[in-house]
């Protein structure tokens, strides 16, 4: 009994910690939850307060349903879902009336067959349409609502005479529910999609900067020991970028949708706000970051590689490699700060520092080529091969022990060459990122770059 | 006028071609669409046929709604959504009765306040709970249905006396709709999640094989010209693997869920079918393929790199690199075939071929080290630097022209070393893939490997 009590308590403790963590990660989640609760309570008043209930009646339930389904975290998502729901309902309503008009003419059985066929055809066609990637991405919810409303009206029309009343009530309650959602998400602590995009871009830049630093430090410090913590840090940094693609695309899509919606009419304040966000350019930045992150993945791959260049050789180039990586990280952080503070930056200053570091690495490679490229060691570097064997011993599977005997003869310099090459490649990719962020800064009309902002 | 007609015709043509393409890609989509149409027609009969309608009444609409929402492409997804909907409804129903019981005691106004508070609290709590990643992933739909049903019953209870009737009808119609969906998706041309997973694993293996081959051929043949077609092929191959993670996870999750559901009871035929699928192992294979694909991305990065080793040097190692890549591709195809035909394979035979190719590359690197590692050329290889400058001229942005002057002094051998290193790394990663597929073959009880199956 005591045991069970203990277990329940531990279970609750875990649930509480998980919940607290979710809230701490993003306090806006708590606010959003309270907003949904408030919206639901308000929409329930339609049912609870007598005069309101008499005006709307049983259909008030449909408004509650709309609030549950439409209310999303960001303004953009709420607007998108609301538009989808509204358009789907309207379109289905129009089509259903057409079908009803045709079905109205002859006998009862023909009517039933006609309705059945219409349901079958529309059901099959809309389901098929949802497989088209473009529809799936933008209008999946709208198509589902279309099918739902169409069936509701068409099938009801067989038993209920006044279908027009059903349709009218449904549209009215959906409008009430949708309107309430919009008001709640636009006016009370709004979460703008643009802000989300802004924040996610900043955190991606900083994550990559952390990744690179951790990567290089680990490569030169203790590559033999498995350091899970730094591995986690590296992984988290680029994983955020690799995973963010579809989430960002949704945000951008919503942004562009809303921009169009607001272009049509609406209040100037929001319109101005949304117009100032260069949605497409955020996408460009995201893509350059994605490509950049592939080189980080490859760099991380060099750490995890089963074939390693001996530490003694790596140590020769340690300083210049770390310096280059640090300059790259610093540049990424500078870009993140530029976006965060909405200030332009000087691409020239960033490049100069990186070029200097690159030159330094180049000098190092030149000054000690005999070890790195040492063709004399290549054939019979017994000491080095000894070293290599140590790394190899970590390989456990059967097959790799067969590879082992072959591949250890391959130049032990190859892995380090790959590592250096990835660093250099990273600089080239960083260049694209700098360009994209520079364009973003110009399109967003960030504040001018001032000399006192300069990187120390 | 004619112009507009032409445009409409072209628009329809495009829509038709898109629709045809979607169907051609996977003919099961057409079947599924017809199935949904049929299910909707059948459920509409509840409304259209008089005796049925008299039994169920207006609530038949709720069954239609359930079919629209629950019917998914695979058996697993349908079951998952059905279970979510069923559990959410039942749980909300129980809780709503508790609330109603408490609210039943005192005066009218207190009752309204109590209901309003309950709606607010439950609304806020469920919305918050949906932010927890584990819930979001597995039960998002169920939690939404819970909130929906709870509000429906609680709020209705204020105006309607017989809430039990509402709840009963709702549960009954949801059961009818859900049951119909299950029957349709289980019995009529079922699309098993396991089959999906099986097919997606095969196509991923083959896609990677194509990627690698195209990569290596392009690297050695005409790296100067931009060949969009082969670029597309390379990109498609690894993109499928990079993108598949969440889709596969959903399938695996569904599989495990269903396995648990079927474990409890149910017909032995399906139970046996689902038990034979080693869901978790498919996940392991997916993860090893993901890591493998990172090296393919890096290899592709070597092609797109702005710094290139001169073609004359690359040509020296062309044959052995292409051979190694071809062995790797062949091994991947062999694995795909093993999964497709449900036959075990011989890891030994695969490794032997690859080792031979690896040895060959090693010999080549050894026999001509003076060019690859040429420390004499390193300092002042004017010809080679001339070559490098050609590749550099393709870099257009301002910043990179600054990098150019520095980094071209970096050894021109680095990029090729990276390329080779990635190839060797790929062999090491392939090893993991082979192990994972081997385990999969054993866990799935694939047919024994026979000698006549051996790779020619």
Multimerization status = homodimer
Structural class of chain A: mainly alpha
CATH superfamily of the largest domain in chain A: Phosphate transport system protein phou homolog 2, domain 2
Q: Into how many domains do the coordinates of chain A divide?
A: 2
Major sheet characteristics of chain A: none
User: What would you report as the Rg of chain A, rounded to the nearest angstrom?
Assistant: 31 Å
- Give me the count of strands of chain A: 0
Order of helices and strands of chain A: HHHHHHHHHHHHHHHHHHHH
In short:
The structure is a homodimer of 456-residue chains. Chain A has helices at residues 2-25, 28-48, 50-56, 60-70, 75-103, 108-129, 133-159, 163-187, 193-221, 228-264, 268-275, 279-304, 311-316, 318-341, 347-367, 369-372, 375-380, 382-392, 398-407, 414-443. Chain A is mainly alpha-helical and 456 residues long.
List the helices and strands and how they pair.
Two copies of one chain form a homodimer.
Chain A lengths: L1 H24 L2 H21 L1 H7 L3 H11 L4 H29 L4 H22 L3 H27 L3 H25 L5 H29 L6 H37 L3 H8 L3 H26 L6 H6 L1 H24 L5 H21 L1 H4 L2 H6 L1 H11 L5 H10 L6 H30 L13
Helix pairs in contact in A: 2-3, 2-4, 2-8, 4-8, 5-7, 5-8, 5-10, 6-7, 9-10, 9-12, 9-14, 10-11, 10-12, 12-20, 14-15, 14-20, 15-20
């Amino acid at each position: 009994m005591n045991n069970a009590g203990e277990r329940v308590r531990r279970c609750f403790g875990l649930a509480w910690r998980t919940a607290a963590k979710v809230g701490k990660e993003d306090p806006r989640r708590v606010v959003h939850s309270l907003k949904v609760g408030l919206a639901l309570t308000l929409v329930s008043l339609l049912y609870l307060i007598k005069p309101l209930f008499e005006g709307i009646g049983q259909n008030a339930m449909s408004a509650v349903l709309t609030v549950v389904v439409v209310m999303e975290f960001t303004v953009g998502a709420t607007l998108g879902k609301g538009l989808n729901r509204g358009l789907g309902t309207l379109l289905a309503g129009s089509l259903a009336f057409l079908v009803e008009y045709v079905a109205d003419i002859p006998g009862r059985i023909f009517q039933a067959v006609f309705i059945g066929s219409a349901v079958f055809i529309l059901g099959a066609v809309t389901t098929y349409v949802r497989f088209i990637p473009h529809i799936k991405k933008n209008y999946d919810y709208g198509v589902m609502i279309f099918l739902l409303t169409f069936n509701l009206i068409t099938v009801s029309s067989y038993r209920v005479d006044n279908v027009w009343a059903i349709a009218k009530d449904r549209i009215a309650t959906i409008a009430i529910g949708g309107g309430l959602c919009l008001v709640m998400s636009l006016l009370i602590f709004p979460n703008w999609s643009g802000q989300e995009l802004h924040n996610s871009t900043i955190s991606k830049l900083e994550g990559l900067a952390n990744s690179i630093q951790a990567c290089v430090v680990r490569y030169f410090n203790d590559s033999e020991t498995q350091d899970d913590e730094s591995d986690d840090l590296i992984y988290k940094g680029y994983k955020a970028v690799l995973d963010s693609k579809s989430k960002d695309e949704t945000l951008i899509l919503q942004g562009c949708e809303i921009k169009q919606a607001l272009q049509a009419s609406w209040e100037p304040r929001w319109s101005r706000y949304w117009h100032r966000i260069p949605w497409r350019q955020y996408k460009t930045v995201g893509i350059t970051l994605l490509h950049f992150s592939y080189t980080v993945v490859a760099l991380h791959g060099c750490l995890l590689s089963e074939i390693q260049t001996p530490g003694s050789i790596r140590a020769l180039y340690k300083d210049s490699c770390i310096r280059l990586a640090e300059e790259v990280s610093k540049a990424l952080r500078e870009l993140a700060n530029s976006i965060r503070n909405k200030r332009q930056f000087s691409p020239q200053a960033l490049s100069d520092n990186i070029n200097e570091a690159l030159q330094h690495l180049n000098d190092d490679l030149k000054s000690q080529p005999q070890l790195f490229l040492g063709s004399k060691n290549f054939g019979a570097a017994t000491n080095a091969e000894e070293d290599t064997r140590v790394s190899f011993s970590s390989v456990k599977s059967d097959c790799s022990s067969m590879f082992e005997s072959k591949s250890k003869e391959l130049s032990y310099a190859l892995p380090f060459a790959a590592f250096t090459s990835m660093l250099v490649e990273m600089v080239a990719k960083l260049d694209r990122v700098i360009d994209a962020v520079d364009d973003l800064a110009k399109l967003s009309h960030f504040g001018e770059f001032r000399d006192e902002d300069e990187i120390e």
